[in-house]
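Researcher: Good morning. I'm working through a list of sequences from a screen, and I'd like to move beyond sequence-only analysis. For each chain I'm collecting a predicted structure so we can compare shapes side by side. This is the next one on the list. No need for commentary yet; just the structure.
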Amino acid sequence: MTLCRGILLIITSRIHPLQRTSTLALRQRKAHLLHSFELSPHLLHASLVERFLQCGKANCRCHTGGPKHGPFFYLNRSFAKGEFQSLLLKSPDQIRQARQGVAAYAELLEVLDEVCQINYELLRRGEPSEAPDV
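Model: Good morning. Structure tokens for this chain:
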């Protein structure tokens, strides 16, 4: 009997929270996400990287255990076929814009992912992704 309870706990712990949400609540959440969604003009599909580097001078402190030079901020983008772009950000305004764009893209992905999860759950239930007209 104890083994059965353990298996039941394992099985129920794997149930996604959306499976416990009513179809009406899922549709309402989806409608809210879609209606409140605004596409930011600052979107950047990239990574912001902060680096500290050694310089080319052999007798510099950065080669003898001292602090490295920096920080230097780079905006990195990956493309299909292994292509890669890196942009050195030279001003505080560029760094601010890059942070804003990367954050806006992350927020966009979160909203899209939540809508996709809701659509998946509706499909799993055999429900249409849009509420039927009444």
